[in-house]
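User: Quick sanity check before I run a bigger batch. Here is a single chain. Can you write out its predicted 3D structure?
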Amino acid sequence: MNTPMGLLIDITKCVGCGECMRACADANGLPQEEAKQLSAEHYTVLQAYHNDEVFVRRMCMHCVDPTCVSACLVGAFSKTSQGAVLYDADKCIGCRYCMQACPFQVPRYEWSSLIPRVQKCRMCAERVANGGVTACTEACPTGATMFGVRDELIHEGRRRIQEAPEEYVDHIYGLTEAGGTSVMYLSGIPFEELGFPKDLPTEPIPQLSWRVLSQIPKYSVAATVLLMGIHWITARRVEVARFEAEEERLRLQEKIHERHGNNTGKGGESR
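Assistant: Done. Predicted structure follows.
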């Protein structure tokens, strides 16, 4: 199956039970403990807002065109055809550019480990490859997390918004943010009030970066020509000044010789 898959998380249906976190920990061999922030040992967490009445899941967004993949110097990150963004610890050199590049600040580093790795949600890639669904989807008792083909999830999200516009913000978060993500959200509260990054470009960040970088050679050539021109003009001015100084020196020297000759002639006449 090579169809891009994804998750649709409906915040209006989440009751904060934490089953998704426990299922994720169990599926990935992580500690079964409550956490509020993503870490190397917590791939998904729940955060409460609006007096603990609204709960938001945090996890890797699995960007359609991931910045972490383009930023990695050694190809330790890759985007699968099924949608997951995966990490290969054997290739990682520990530069942590992925952490700096991620617009959602997701990747976490094992700072306390002697052989540290970068950790994050894998979107249960092995389960999905075998025809299953993510562990968090399977565990969710309210249907707040839905797994499926990304295009179908977008259609479902739009259907819910259209059928109950009074319950939802008219936007699917992740549809266009950073060029689109495989993990998308519905909410009844503006996303900026729930800690979601705003003002992200709608074009994939790697493409924006490439557009800038691709112009560098052209501008480098222009800059090189300009600098060479400036250098030539400067060098020419120095050369001309040196030539003029030498000419002036020779003229002065000739005048001195002329005066000396004249004085010698006058002295001979007097005798």
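Helices lie at 19-28, 67-71, 97-101, 125-129, 135-139, 150-163, 205-270.

User: Great, the batch can go ahead then.
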